[in-house]
Write a structure and sequence with these properties.
7 helices, Alpha-Beta Plaits, Helix Hairpins, SH3 type barrels, alpha+beta, 5-stranded antiparallel sheet
Amino acid sequence: METADKIKQHTDRLIALGIEYAPKALLALVTLILGIWVIRGVTTVLRRALTHRRLDPTLVPFLGGMLGWGLRILLLVSVASMIGIQTTSFVAILGAAGLAIGLALQGSLANFAGGMLIMIFRPYKVGDLVESQGQLGVVREIQMFTTTFLSPDNRLIIVPNGSLSNGIIKNHSAEGVMRVDMNVAVAYGADLARTKGILLDLLKRNAQVLAEPAPVVAVGELGDGAIRLVIRPSCKPEHYWDVYFQTLESIPAVLAAAGVPLPVPRRDVHMVQ
């Protein structure tokens, strides 16, 4: 009989708890689902509004991500208080959990801090051609933890913000001008002044080559069997590869048409009797 009475007492207690907390739990669940849906809508509207106002594209995904995470934390606290969890206790639990998670995710926190530093000091922005961590590409998006690049061969590159903020960054778009470095070899019998004039004229005919800074053609090296000329035109970052490939393709035909002697590989063999 005692066992049956205890079972009945526990059952009655569970039923009472269910009657007391079931409506709260159901309301909290509905609030959680609706809250997540509203947060997605708010962040989407914010991104569209910031884009419509022509805000710097660098800030749009970063601000959207921060707002989304902040609203999710507030929603979680609100749902916990609806169930009956004291807010102070919940905040203490969040603090302890945050400390444990922070120790376990030191790399992620470093990436978040790196993202904040990038947003503050602005070493690059969306659309810049950047070289860092052995990668070269156009900045596509700056997120809270990572930066996304699009490489010249159309590959998507994702680099953690922590390594970017602590490493060397080459921003080829910062000044709006890039120098294209090329070399060409001519024979020792070539008229250097005339050859340099022909190459400079070739560069000036290219509409993508900038007049300022002026293109440069100079002797770079006196090699074995050839004189190596350096060719240094300047262009906008988005025209870099066009200028590079077009110039290299045109040089042989232009020099051949002008009668400039090109070096011929030669090897001297000495016979010892």
